[in-house]
Amino acid sequence: MPKSLRSPRHQRFLAQLISLRKAKGLTQEQVAEKLGRPQSFVAKYEGGERRLDVVEFLDVTAALDTDPCEILSSLQL
Amino acid sequence: MPKSLRSPRHQRFLAQLISLRKAKGLTQEQVAEKLGRPQSFVAKYEGGERRLDVVEFLDVTAALDTDPCEILSSLQL
DNA sequence: GCAGCCTATCCCAAAATGGGATAATCCGAA
DNA sequence: TTCGGATTATCCCATTTTGGGATAGGCTGC
Prior knowledge:
InterPro entries (chains A, B): Cro/C1-type_HTH, Lambda_DNA-bd_dom_sf
Radius of gyration of chain A: 12 Å
Oligomer: homodimer
Strand content of chain A: under 5%
Pfam families (chains A, B): HTH_31
Distance between the termini of chain A: 23 Å
CATH class of chain A: Mainly Alpha
Protein name (chains A, B): Helix-turn-helix domain-containing protein
Organism (chains A, B): Mesorhizobium alhagi CCNWXJ12-2
Structural class of chain A: mainly alpha
Shape of chain A: globular
Number of helices of chain A: 5
GO molecular function (chains A, B): DNA binding
Largest sheet of chain A: none
């Protein structure tokens, strides 16, 4: 795992994405499908193996049917 | 430039960051200093030569003294 | 234990990054 | 217009990250 992805903020970020996906009752496979990517893509960003850039993040929150700002606000500082 | 960074949304994203920095009267060097990074870092993400992940984005908006959500909302779809 | 679903990991060629150094541009003053 | 400092873009290239199909590993209920 890239070490830049080990910060506490990143950890919280990932935890949010994961719990949000589960709360929506979606599998990695289903999210992957919405994103037009393989399941390994979702597994990797959720596992911190790969980072999400800003535009990708918006795509993911759209797939999760969620407001991106809500996630960001929980990461402030 | 990585081709993943050529989408219209990304272009708008970059344009926002740049105009925001200028509006605040800051140079790349000054932003870089706040971020604890070299000027080339700022030059690269502004130029689309490098992507910003979500946490880095928050750092940048903090350096620009700006609300990240405002930028995101202008990128929706 | 087995079946089925879900998630993590492998592999490694290809692509992206880091950052100091340096080139190129911009811009106001003389 | 020319000069010079300030600002931004580009070089270089070793190191790090990524892409994604295949496959291993886990978990749950039966």
